[in-house]
Amino acid sequence: MLPSVRTALLLLAAVVAAPAVAQLRPADTGTPLPALNAGPRVALETGMGRIVLELYPDKAPATVANFLSYVRDGHYNGTVFHRVVADFLVQGGDYTPDLQPKPERAPVHNEANNGLSNLRGTIAAARKPGDKDSARSQFFINTVDN
After folding, report:
1. Can you say whether residue 36 is alpha, beta or left, with left for phi > 0 and alpha for psi between -120 and 50 degrees?
2. Residue 61 phi, psi (nearest 5)
3. In this structure, what DSSP letter does residue 115 have?
4. What is the maximum alpha-carbon separation in the chain?
5. d(CA 79, CA 138)
6. How many helices (DSSP H) and strands (DSSP E) are in the chain?
7. Whole-angstrom Cα distance, residue 43 to residue 105?
8. What pLDDT does residue 45 have?
9. pTM
10. CA-to-CA distance for 135 and 34, rounded, in angstroms?
11. Residues 22, 63, 75, 34, Cα dihedral to 10°
12. Distance between CA atoms of residues 114 and 92, nearest Å
């Protein structure tokens, strides 16, 4: 379950990545997730608690590879959720605590037509309005079914 978010400056203290990354460890959730196409898990340690994300490289290979490369490089360490919209989403991945943008890589193409839905608790790549192929480091977590 996603922790309640009451502030726009929610600091991500550390990001711990998937089993395939040697210097990082897999997320230990304490409770097993369904075994349907289980993908790599990433744990976001926040000031409001831990959020464990399961990624689906079989459904969005370029998006997952992009996200995990930012994780491996420590890009998300010390970042903030800069956009928090009640009953909608929380978004982060690009800004420092003083709201300075971090360097980003080239965008990845849109993989949204893959059968996955923006349901409560799911993560997705954030894109610029009107540019479907603009996903870079920013992501959002749905707090309701969108």
Report:
1. beta
2. -60, -45
3. S
4. 40
5. 10
6. 1, 7
7. 22
8. 86
9. 0.74
10. 28
11. -60
12. 23
